[in-house]
Specification:
Helices cover 36% and strands 18% of the residues. The chain is of the alpha/beta class. The chain has a nine-stranded mixed sheet, with helices on both faces. The chain has a six-stranded mixed sheet with strand order 12-13-17-14-15-16, sandwiched between helices. It has a two-stranded antiparallel sheet with strand order 7-8. The model is unreliable at 1-7 (pLDDT under 50). The site of zinc ion has 8 residues, from loops. Zinc ion binds next to loops.
Length: 421
């Protein structure tokens, strides 16, 4: 009986918004039953059509954290949710990466009693989502080329972020000081917590975003030779395997999730948790236990072979993913597609250095496997072309294998391996 339920947040919404979340929720459930993904996006789309300002209505009265950047959004969202989870409150989150307005609406509508929300946001939509949600915290991870057909946009994005953050004086910004574009984007925000989260990929930040001159680098430090733009002073530092907190105390950061990029995401999560009063020790114990993020990093048994899935969507992502590969001779399968969500142009493959794959078994798959094959040949990496992940498993005769794939190739492999993946 609906009347016997305790009043939830939805009862405070105007009638049309309540109707929109109810209809949207029903559509989402129908979509899930029909086997079309987790149904969250379609529910949100329908809800928004009935009530265009649904997101701000659903966000009202909640403490909201937005997470954006080119790489690491989904993982960082998961890590922040884990850290804030130690407060014992219910947290709404779009944990599976539906990061446009409809996905945010669905995440909030699904958790009407959650007083907090940690929401991943697509880079392009961040300014609008910040305005709609009145977020308390915005987390800026990094900015680099995602898809070649969007290459020119990152400077424009940084400019839009800068204006949006300048117009949100109450918002606390957690930003990566090691990425000059991020530092510039957050440069006019009123309250910024700077994190030295590192930047492996420098190819999109040779120039000063402020004046266009050449940026000078000295280790992690950077400054512009022509204007005042320089790396801001940091409060949190990732130093190798250690995190240094704002008091200067250093602690080992021992994550289950592999790789430098995830350590960087974890330090950002600790900085966000600190804003909400979660101590480092408490946040760290929660963050360290996260073992998989939306199908990534988990070990899946397939025909006697332990497969580990790694998602890498762009050159910066591939660079980080190549870093976390199991040591040789563990075989590797690389899969590349070029559908719309991946970007149609595969020339970015040439921006990645594959030479470290020499001397191990490499399998190449995906709709654009021939593009990848040409690239590997240029780097003198021996490989075999396969149609499916099972074919690679059968040929590899190995107890384990790493599988690196870009966005839609990753989804296809997950579908083959089953949703348990
Ligand atoms: Zn400059």
């Amino acid at each position: 009986m609906s009347t016997s339920r305790p009043p939830d947040r939805r009862s405070g919404l105007p009638l049309r918004a309540r109707l929109a979340t109810t209809v949207g929720g029903a559509a989402g459930r129908a979509s899930r039953l029909a086997g079309r993904g987790d149904g969250s996006v379609i529910g949100g789309v329908i809800g928004l059509r009935l009530k265009p300002d649904l997101l701000s209505l659903l966000a009202r009265g909640r403490q909201i954290v937005l997470v954006t950047g080119t790489n690491g959004k989904t993982t960082t969202t998961r890590l922040i949710t884990a850290a804030l989870g130690t407060l014992g409150q219910q947290i709404a989150s779009n944990a599976f990466g539906a990061n446009m307005e409809a996905g945010l609406v669905a995440a909030l509508a699904k958790a009407p009693d959650a007083t907090m929300a940690v929401l991943e946001v697509d880079e392009k939509h961040m300014p609008a989502m910040l305005e709609a949600t009145g977020a308390r915290v915005v987390t800026l991870l990094n900015l680099s080329r995602d898809q070649m057909d969007r290459a020119a946009e990152i400077w424009l994005l940084a400019r839009r972020w800068r204006a949006a953050l300048a117009a949100a004086p109450d918002c606390r910004v957690i930003a990566n000081a090691d990425d000059p574009l991020i530092a510039w984007a957050a440069g006019q925000a009123r309250k910024v917590v700077w994190v030295a989260a590192g930047q492996r990929w420098h190819d999109d930040s040779w120039c000063c975003p402020n004046c266009g001159s050449h940026l000078r680098r000295d280790g992690e430090d950077w400054h512009c030779g022509e204007c005042v733009n320089r790396r801001p002073p940091v409060s949190w530092v990732l130093a190798g395997d250690e995190v240094i907190d704002p008091t200067g105390r250093s602690r080992p950061l021992d994550l289950i999730l592999p790789g430098r990029a995830n350590r960087s995401n974890a330090v950002v999560a600790l900085a966000v948790a600190d804003v909400f009063g979660v101590g480092v020790t408490q946040a760290m114990s929660a963050v360290q236990q996260v073992r998989s993020v939306a199908g990534r990093y988990t070990q899946i048994e397939r025909r006697g072979c332990g497969l580990r899935l790694l998602l890498a969507k762009n050159p910066a992502g591939w660079l980080e993913a190549l870093d976390v590969l199991a040591p040789a001779p563990v075989p590797v399968m690389l899969a590349v597609n070029a559908q719309v969500p991946d970007g149609k142009d595969t020339s970015w493959l040439w921006d990645v250095d594959y030479r470290r794959l020499r001397g191990r078994q490499v399998f190449v798959s995906g709709e654009r496997r021939l593009d990848l094959a040409v690239r590997l040949e240029a780097d003198e990496v021996a490989f075999r072309i396969v149609g499916t992940v099972d074919e690679a498993v059968d040929l590899a005769h190995s107890a384990s294998m790493d599988v690196m794939a870009n966005y839609t190739a990753f989804q296809q492999i997950r579908a083959v391996l089953g949703r348990s993946a």
